[in-house]
Amino acid sequence: MPKIAPPPGVSDIFPDEATAWLQLESAARKVFGLYGFGELRTPIFEFTEVFQRGLGGETEVVQKEMYTFEDRGGRSLTLRPEGTAGVMRALAGTDAANGVEHRVFYMGPMFRGERPAAGRKRQFHQVGVENVGRPASPGLDAEAIAMLCHFLEEIGITGFNLLINTRGVVSDRPAAEQALAKHFRPHLAEMCDDCRARIDRNVWRILDCKQACCRPFIESAPDPAQFFSAESRDYFKKVCDLLTEQGIPFTVDPRLVRGLDYYVHTVFELTHSGLGAQNAIAGGGRYELTLPGLRNPIPGVGFAAGMERLLIVRDALGVTPPPAPVPKIYLASLGDAALAFNTSFAAKLRHAGISAAIDYDAKSMKSQMRAADRMKAEYVIVIGDSELEAQSAKLKHMADGREIEVKLSLDGVLAALAADAETK
Ligand code: HAM
């Protein structure tokens, strides 16, 4: 059959792959629950201005990557490129706007019009958390980082690198911006076109540039944090101390600015060598988000991890996902009466929590046994006229061929399964 490919950068997730996704999702629910976080499900699309205002008009995501369209009512809508802005839009109508803490997590698809590559998709999935409402506190920032590390541990990811930095607060920035611009300006002729434009629009973005021609000037740039206030530097020191006290290893990277404009104080990113070029498995930080209609920005701290990337890293580390579910019992039918019996017997087994499969076309015994094999059914019961008459049949264990007599009733099957489990 010809395969009809989906659009570039999006994928199907088949049942045998879905088990690994479910495992990540339930690990996230378990770990985030331990820290008191509850699930918040926000819409897949929002008014465009939620992201424009929330993420900042100068960010790469807003300028180049959003899937924006007009609906039939002429409203500009955008498929969410990340989760934080939607969460904040939802919580802005609650007492989070009055300083009350809300602990939420989310998981689901996000959309960015990026060039597809291994680990870089146009529809990808994030699992993320946001602690929203309470004023900035190093304890909450360190807790968010600790929770991310705990989650990775829970899903078997080891050997990651934690990079952290401080973005200071808005009033810290002019002095740092001047110093950065002064450093870069003499080298602009040798730098990329994007950075030449960034120097006056948003000089921080230069620190994010991956172009080889810009890297030497980025490496030699002054550390912006040296221009921040003593309070901001002290805040960051407290975050670092809290991580050290908890035994969480990290590297301070003064060039880490992160791609979204809402960050203040702590920012962090987790990388892993198992990923290749797209090496960020998760990122986050503290933020203050301004949204349409809000008088004051709401504070928060959180992170998001890319689920596709987590799965790639787990694969590289040899962590095996659970197998896809298989039928416990395949009911093979010899003749119409057997098929009629099996149809209602399968329903009884399923209602009792035992997965059962049958072939409603009741083809030859050979093809039914092939189907049982293909489905990896654990047991087969073959039922024909004589079995119906005796109300008894053989329960065959497919892996080793052992057979036990079974009464053709729900209790009979339950007893036979229990007896067989004991002989294993
Ligand atoms: P972000 O760094 O843009 O942050 O994305 C977080 C993670 O999503 C990345 O580290 C990466 O694993 C994954 N990711 C991003 N883009 C793609 C893509 N095109 N394909 C596959 N995976 C991707 C945020 O989104 C912030 N909202 C995180 C945050 C939450 N900050 C505070 N709270």
Outline:
This protein is 38% helix and 22% strand. It has 424 residues and is an alpha+beta fold. Histidyl-adenosine monophosphate (HAM) binds at residues 82-84, 112, 114, 119-121, 124, 126, 128, 130, 259-260, 280-285, 287, 302-306, 308-309.
Q: Unreliable runs, pLDDT <50, ≥5 residues?
A: none
What percentage of residues falls in helices of 4 or more residues?
25-40%
Q: Give average pLDDT, whole number.
A: 94
Strand order of the largest sheet: 1-5-6-11-10-9-7-8
CATH class of the largest domain: Alpha Beta
CATH homologous superfamily grouping of the largest domain:
Bira Bifunctional Protein, Domain 2
Rg measurement, Å: 28 Å
Number of domains: 2
- How many β-strand stretches? 16
Explain what the structure shows.
- With about 425 residues, the chain is of the alpha+beta class.
- It has two domains: about 15-170 and about 230-315, 2-Layer Sandwich (BirA Bifunctional Protein, domain 2), CATH 3.30.930; about 330-415, Anticodon-binding domain (Rossmann fold, 3-Layer(aba) Sandwich), CATH 3.40.50.800.
- The protein has 15 helices and 16 strands.
- It has helices at about 15-35, 50-55, 60-65, 85-90, 140-155, 175-185, 195-200, 205, 215-220, 230-245, 305-315, 335-350, 365-375, 385-390, 410-424; strands at about 40, 45, 70, 75-80, 100-110, 125-130, 160-165, 250, 265-270, 280-290, 300-305, 330-335, 355-360, 380-385, 390-395, 405.
- The strands form three sheets. The protein has an eight-stranded mixed sheet with strand order 1-5-6-11-10-9-7-8, sandwiched between helices. Strands 13-12-14-15-16 form a five-stranded mixed sheet, with helices on both faces.
- A hairpin with a 5-residue loop joins strand 3 and strand 4.
- Helix 2 crosses helix 4 and helix 5 packs parallel to helix 10.
- The chain is elongated, with a radius of gyration of 28 Å.
- It starts with 14 loop residues before the first helix and ends with a helix.
- The mean pLDDT is about 95.
- Bound molecules: histidyl-adenosine monophosphate (HAM).
- Histidyl-adenosine monophosphate binds near residues 83, 283, 284, 304 and 308.
- Histidyl-adenosine monophosphate binds near residues 82, 84, 121, 126 and 285.
